[in-house]
Amino acid sequence: MNSITAPVDPRIKAVLIYLRQNCAAPLELDSVAAAVGLSTSRLRHLIRLHTGESPSQYLKNLRIQMVRDLLETTPLSVKEIVGRVGYSDASRLFKDFKAQFGLSPRQHRLRHCNSVPAAIIEQIQAYVERNKNH
């Protein structure tokens, strides 16, 4: 957020929270704007003003952060992650991820997650699933 600007309009705060909570869904900016009583162009302007990014760039960055978090905290394959974070194809995710972090998703996982082997995480998940109803 730009620290020189006035306090954030509560509608924009709500929109940014909504985008964070729903970043895997397709962006329906017209609907979001109407829901908070703003024109689409005004909403675009205010999001850029408060985040320094266009709505689509802001959403893309949220998705890439979600990819990073899932790579670091789950044994999900990149293919499984693609759908969970709102990407329609893996090649776009790879390109965006590498542009942001300088590594492919697989390289990132290997570099940042060696302390918790995926097999152990899978074992925990399987155990929890088996004992879910007990």
Outline of the structure:
The chain has 134 residues and is mostly helical. It is built from eight helices and no strands.
The end-to-end span amounts to: 47 Å
Q: Supply the number of helical segments.
A: 8
The CATH class is Mainly Alpha
Indicate the overall shape.
elongated
Largest sheet: none
* Oligomerization status of the protein chains: single chain
Order of helices and strands: HHHHHHHH
As a percent range, the share of helical residues equals 55-70%
Stretches with pLDDT under 50, minimum 5 residues: none
Number of discrete domains: 1
CATH architecture: Orthogonal Bundle
The total strand number stands at 0
Give the radius of gyration. 18 Å
Please name the fourth-level CATH homologous superfamily. Homeodomain-like
Give the CATH topology. Arc Repressor Mutant, subunit A
What's the pLDDT, averaged over the residues? 87
What proportion of the residues form beta strands (DSSP E)?
A: under 5%
Secondary-structure content class: mainly alpha
Explain what the structure shows.
With 134 residues, the chain is an all-alpha fold. The chain has one domain: Homeodomain-like (Arc Repressor Mutant, subunit A, Orthogonal Bundle). It has 8 helices and no strands. It has helices at residues 10-21, 29-35, 40-51, 55-73, 78-84, 90-101, 105-112, 118-130. Helix 4 crosses helix 6 (90-101). The longest helix has 19 residues, at 55-73. The N and C termini lie far apart (47 Å). The model has no long low-confidence stretch (mean pLDDT 87).
